[in-house]
Specification:
The protein is mainly alpha-helical. 73% of the residues lie in helices and 0% in strands. It has ten helices and no strands. The longest helix has 24 residues. The protein is globular and about 55 Å long. It starts with a helix and ends with a helix.
Amino acid sequence: MKSENQIEISLWMSFKNGNRNAFAEIYKTHIHSLLGYGIKLCSDQEILKDNIQDLFIELWNGRENLANVECLKFYLIKSLRYKLVRAERKRLLQINTDPINDENVYKRVESSVESEMIEKETRAAQINTVRKAINILSKRQQEVIQLRFYQGFTNEQIAELMQMNYQSVSNLIYSSLCRIKKNLSSSPVFTTALVAAFSFFV
């Protein structure tokens, strides 16, 4: 029986060879992840959808020259992130005559990452409490939490995606979780909310 990774590699090779069904399957499998992550970087849904559409058009047109990939979701999210940052940089250049650098662009592109880390059965009070705790985090902490625990990427992948070294990613995740714990400690439903949040992280 093929593993999930083997299935993805086979699907990617079929797509590269011009199989439209494989291309459609890649789109269907990953579109929700792309939309879910992309909306955190781009609040304009039309711009986001246009960039996702452009991404898949570029993939199809350039399929013969694409390299093999180890993790398809990581490859797609990384490609979309690059396109969204580039689009935001272009927009800022059009409205701002002052010089801007990539770090400034990145800071303006980063947006709030809502908590989707709690099981559906968790009570509404617990959900609201944990969301508030996560929303207090910095934008960079919110992004690393979403990438690690919602998207399921490894620290190595996050380091590449966020252009950080491995140790910095590990430190950022640790500090983010500690701050979530500290934020929850002041809540009247601290115990149940903390269990709900960290049972997901484990």
